Amino acid sequence: xxxxxxxxxxxxxxxxxxPGEETPRERFRxxxxxxxxxxxxxxxxxxxxLRTTGDPYNKALQDLVxxxxxxxxxxVTYGRYHGVPNQIGFDGHWFSSSTDFHIVVxxxxxxxxxxxxxxxxxxxxxxxxxxxIPSWDRALGLYVIGRPDPELxxxxxxxxxxxxxxxxxxxSIDSLLTLAELMNEYDVSHDDVxxxxxxxxxxxxxxxxxxxxxxxxxxxxxxVVEDKDxxxxxxxxxxxxxxxxxxxxxxxxxxxxxIRTLLGKEKIYAFGERTPGRKHIKPEDRIxxxxxxxxVVAQATVASRPKKKPHPQVRHHDxxxxxxxxxxxxxxxxxxxxxxxxxxxxxxxxxxxxxxxHWAWFVQATSRVSKNDFEILTGxx
Length: 381
Prior knowledge:
Structural class: alpha+beta
Mean pLDDT: 87
Number of strands: 12
CATH topology of the largest domain: Restriction Endonuclease
Radius of gyration: 22 Å
Order of helices and strands: HHHHEEEHEHEHHHHEHEEEEEHEH
């Protein structure tokens, strides 16, 4: 039986900053350390925290993000939920013993509200004054954002405008989790993580996403070979292939805006030159779409083979020039199919794999899925 984050919060009690070893806060932190041993489990709970409004979930999110820091090899000091006079109000203090470097973390659910960068910078300076950090040369402040808003670049602009690119960084929680998964599965060391967290420029997502895409392509090639018999049987029986394609927000549009524009309005979609499946997708195939961090939110029937004909409504159409038509579009943003551990355990793609382990590879690149998986992912089962 899988226990939800909401159930855990009810069991441990009201999360607050009360001191003591048996307070709800300490019980919650012990629970996640003792029971969440795989990054996939942590991702599930973080996504539940982001989907659910309320102060308890915001506090739980802060602790879960700090726990990701432990997966990344840091010694983590968990911060307070709320600031009080005469105490430093950081959300987390991560120390890298191998590189003698400190990261002071500020967790934000969203960028909708203005974020004052001088607050995080002040936390670092207070830790320096208190002897917890030697100097700015051995530290940086890291904003970890739950739901980045592509239309809001206030935080990045503020960091650049105040010339703090050498002191402050930004990453999404999704990218931080992906980095933890790469470290867990591949030859990525803690020192490699540090080299990623300390580049030039304020944002690190593009570096992590690049690594993730490369690994995802490799994973998908392996998965296609492993699932070849299942998919080929489906194709022979009905001459229909089933696909799952991820859509993520970027600096121009949210994933939902992209899906509504391309599928809902234009009745098209587009692939890049190296999109897995680009040469094989054909009319009458079925395709569903995963909004990163949310779930499967749309499906359609393919109406034409991809043609190299860039469409002006496709963001970065020079990178995604292969356009194809779709029909029978269904959008369900208000009731997405969440890819929970229970759902993953029923998928053919996870046969022989632990559904609680890292699973982002499954939704990182376009891939072929079995008919059974497609029906589960679209709620038809």
